[in-house]
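Blackboard transcription, Thursday session:
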Amino acid sequence: DAGITQSPRYKITETGRQVTLMCHQTWSHSYMFWYRQDLGHGLRLIYYSAAADITDKGEVPDGYVVSRSKTENFPLTLESATRSQTSVYFCASKRSGTATSGNTIYFGEGSWLTVV
Amino acid sequence: DAKTTQPNSMESNEEEPVHLPCNHSTISGTDYIHWYRQLPSQGPEYVIHGLTSNVNNRMASLAIAEDRKSSTLILHRATLRDAAVYYCILLDNAGGTSYGKLTFGQGTILTVHP
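(Written on the board underneath:)
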């Protein structure tokens, strides 16, 4: 049961570089999410996707780009990394369904990104 | 989105019950009450959820007030592995493409003493 995996787990990059964080889930869940977690801010939603080719902005989307060409993958790209994007990034997924049967959201283990 | 209020931190002793409160006075009729927890250096994990009735699963129990304006997560016998940040979250069942977004607050840091 592979579940949801993120890569890389740890990354150090320089300001201005493009970085892509990968997220892969093996459950064929319809919904996928990207969150970032910073001290003092808790978890904040960056982008989410309800299905392949359907994405929407969350609370803090600026500086990020997402795509979802396949149901199982939801990469997050920092087009030009800035120090303020140093954070822990969590990918998550959820299957479609009613509130009683499809509510559980599963998170990956996180990607620790440092921008220097 | 309706907001939740939780204490910043709580402490417990190992093998004792823990009651983690959550206030959600602006909850709507379509909001489900969810609890997630985050262990150190890990992603959040689902604990339990409910709508109106009390709920039990292998991890915990959820007690929901009759007016639904508050709820309590109950860990029946705390272990050291239960030390985590616990988040109480309202999840709208209204449907649509936004369905399933979690809005995290600061949560409650639970410390378990041996």
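Lecturer's comment: The mean pLDDT of chain B is 90.
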